[in-house]
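Hey, sorry to bother you again with one of my protein questions. A protein chain has come my way and I'm curious about its shape. I'm sending you its amino acid sequence along with the C-alpha cells. I owe you a coffee for this, so here goes:
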Amino acid sequence: MPLDPAVLRNALAPGGTLDTLDGRFDALGTRYSGKVRENFSRGQERLIVVTDRVSAFDVVLGTIPFKGQVLNRLAQHWFELSAEVMPGHVLDVPDPQATRAIECTPIPVEMVVRGYLTGSSSTSILRAYERGERSFCGHALPEGLRPHERLAAPLLTPSTKAAKGDHDQSVSKDVLFERGLIDPETFGELEARVMKLFAFGQAEAAKRGLILVDTKYELGRAPDGRIVLIDEIHTPDSSRYWYADGYEDAMAKGEPPRALDKEFLRRWLVSKGFLGDGAPPPLSPEIRTEAANRYVELFEQLTGRPFEPDTEAPQERLARNLGLG
C-alpha cells in the first residue's frame, strides 16, 4: 500500500534520505563508492550501505525516499530464496540499509538475461530491433517481433562493467573473450547457472502475479574459490517487472505493459529529452514520491509482507547499528 503522505513529506526534507556518508564511516574499511552503494572493504569482509540514490542511463539523478531500505530488504529476500539455485555473498544484515558480505573478487562482466523485446534506452534490445538490427549480442532475432513481445527463449546478453560515470556496453561473449574479461569455460558455467536463476525468478514472480521481464546478475569469486552472486538480485534497480494481469490486453492494443519498477522514471527522462548525456532534469517531489511508492509496492507484491519503513534519520541510525556510536 502507498506510504503515509506525512512520512513521505518528512523523508523528502533535507536529511530525510541517504545520499552520502560522512567521514565517520571511513572507519569501516577502504571505501569504494558506486552509483547507488557505498562499499567498505576490510580483510575478507565487505560492508555495503545501500543509499537512496537513484540512477538511470548510468547517471545518478538524486534520491528516492526509503529506496535503500527497499533494495536491501528485497535483495535479502531473494538471496535467501534462491540460495539453493546459486549461493550469494551475504553474511548478515545489521541495518535496513546495510549488508555485511564476503569480500569477493568481482568478475568484470554483467550477466544480463532478457525474456522480452523491450527497453527504453538507446542500447536496449528493442531500440536495436527498431533500428533494423537482427543480431543482438550474437543472438539472431527473427523478423516480425512486436515491441514488448516475449522472446522464443530468454537470451543472455552480457555487458561490460563500466566505471562510475561511464556507460555499460552490451556485447557478445566472443567480444568478452577477445578482451580477456572472462574465459570460455567460466562463461559457460555462469551462463548455465544464471539462466537457471532467471527461470527460478520468473517462476517466483509469476506466483505473485508479476512478470520478471529481464535482469542483470553480478558475480564474484570468494576467497575459497567459489563463484557467488554479489551486489543485488531481482530488485527494481536490476530488474524489470510487469503486472501479469493485463499484459495480453496491452499487447493487443499495442500499448506498453503496466510496469512496476523504475521504467516509468526512464520514460519520464526520455520525455524530457534525457538519454544519459549532459545534465539530467531535476527530480520533482511528485516524481520522487511516485518512485518511492512503486518501490514499496513491488517489495510488498514480491514478498507478501507489508513494508514498514524505518523513519529514523538514516546517517545516525546507520552509525549506531554499525558500531560507530
Summary: The chain is about 30% helix and 25% strand. The longest strand covers residues 210-221. Residues 5-321 form a domain with the D-amino Acid Aminotransferase; Chain A, domain 1 fold (CATH 3.30.470.20).
